[in-house]
Design a protein that fits this description.
By secondary structure, this protein is α+β, with helices and mostly antiparallel strands. The chain has ten helices and nine strands. The protein has a four-stranded antiparallel beta sheet with strand order 3-4-5-6. Strands 1-2-9 form a three-stranded antiparallel beta sheet. A two-stranded antiparallel sheet has the order 7-8. The two termini are 19 Å apart.
C-alpha cells in the first residue's frame, strides 16, 4: 500500500509505504519489553554461580569463564575474570563491584545489570521464567503468522540472487552506503539473513538450552542433554547465545539510527515508511 508524500508546498515525489502490519509491530515491541528483562534477570541467576563449564558437571579447576573476587596483597578486594585460562582485572564491573554505599563486594555482574538489583535468586528466576514464556509464545505466534501470511517467503527469506550479492551488500554497509528510494523500503539481504537467523536459529537455541537446564525436563526429554553435551554445556551455550542477542540488538539499533532514526521508528510504530527519492539528508526532513 502506497500514498503520495506531501510538503508545505503540496505533493512531493516522496511516497508513503505501509511497511509493517500490526501483528509485526506488536511482536517487535513485545520483544523490546521482554529482552532487557530476560537479560537482566538472567544475569541475576548467573550471579548465584558466576562460572561456566563444558560437559555435564562443574569442573571448578577448569572453567571456561569465571568471575571471582580475590584479596590483593594490600588487602583490597579485586574482581578477576578468567576466560579460557586467561585472567583479567575487572574490578568494578565483573567479580567485584560497588554497592549503593560505594563499597566493593563480591558479585558476578554489577547491581545495575541485574534484575532485581540486589542478589535475590528466587525473584530473578520468577522474572526470567515468566518473561521467557511470554517471549516463547510471542515467537511461536510470529513464526506461525509469518508462514500463514507468507511474510517469511515474501519479506524475510533471502532469494538466491540476493545471496550472490551479499559481498557487495557487506561492502556497502561498511562504507555506510545505504539504499534509498523504493529499495530502502524492503529488507536488504543482510537484514534478511540477520532476521531469519535470529528468529529461526538463535531464539530457538536460547529456548532449547534454557529448557535443557531444567532437571524435570531432563527426566522427560533426556535427548536434550545428549543434544547439547550436558547441562553445563547447555548453560554455556545459553549464555553465549544471550550475548549474541545483545550484539545483534546493538547492531540493529545502530543501523536503525544511521539509516533514518525517526523514519524507521515511525514505521515500527504506525506501519508507515516514507520513501525518499534521494538519499541525501533524508533524516533532516523526516
Amino acid at each position: 500500500m502506497v500514498k503520495p508524500g506531501h510538503t508545505k508546498e503540496g505533493k512531493s515525489a516522496d511516497r508513503w509505504r505501509f511497511r509493517h502490519p500490526l501483528w509485526v509491530r506488536l511482536a517487535h515491541w513485545l520483544n523490546v519489553l521482554c529482552l532487557p528483562i530476560l537479560l537482566m534477570s538472567g544475569f541475576q541467576i548467573f550471579n548465584a554461580h558466576p562460572a561456566l563449564y563444558w560437559g555435564e558437571r562443574s569442573d571448578r579447576d577448569r572453567p571456561i569463564l569465571a568471575m571471582k573476587a580475590l584479596r590483593a596483597e594490600n588487602g583490597e578486594l579485586r574482581g578477576v575474570t578468567t576466560l579460557f585460562g586467561h585472567s583479567f582485572d575487572t574490578t568494578g564491573l565483573f567479580g567485584a563491584s560497588r554497592n549503593e554505599a560505594g563499597a566493593l563486594y563480591r558479585r558476578g555482574f554489577p547491581e545495575w545489570a541485574t534484575l532485581p538489583k540486589h542478589q535475590w535468586l528466587a525473584m530473578g528466576r520468577r522474572w526470567h521464567f515468566f518473561f521467557g514464556w511470554v517471549f516463547v509464545l510471542n515467537g511461536f505466534i510470529f513464526a506461525a503468522y509469518s508462514l500463514v501470511s507468507r511474510h517469511l517467503w515474501s519479506d524475510l527469506l533471502p532469494k538466491k540472487e540476493e545471496i550472490r550479492k551479499i559481498g557487495a551488500s557487506i561492502r556497502d554497509h561498511l562504507r555506510f552506503r545505504h539504499p534509498f528510494g523504493e529499495e530502502a523500503a524492503r529488507y536488504n539481504v543482510l537484514q534478511k539473513v540477520a532476521y531469519t537467523g535470529v528468529v529461526f536459529v538463535l531464539a530457538p537455541l536460547i529456548v532449547l538450552t534454557g529448557l535443557t537446564m531444567s532437571p524435570n525436563l531432563n527426566a522427560a526429554f533426556p535427548w536434550m542433554l545428549t543434544l547439547f553435551g550436558g547441562r553445563q554445556s547447555a548453560r554455556t551455550i545459553h549464555f553465549i547465545a544471550a550475548f549474541a542477542f545483545i550484539g545483534y540488538t546493538l547492531l540493529h539499533v545502530l543501523m536503525v539510527a544511521i539509516t533514518g532514526l525517526w523514519n524507521n521508528l515511525r514505521s515500527m510504530l504506525t506501519g508507515w515508511y516514507l520513501i525518499r527519492q534521494s538519499g541525501e539528508n533524508h533524516e533532516k526532513t523526516n
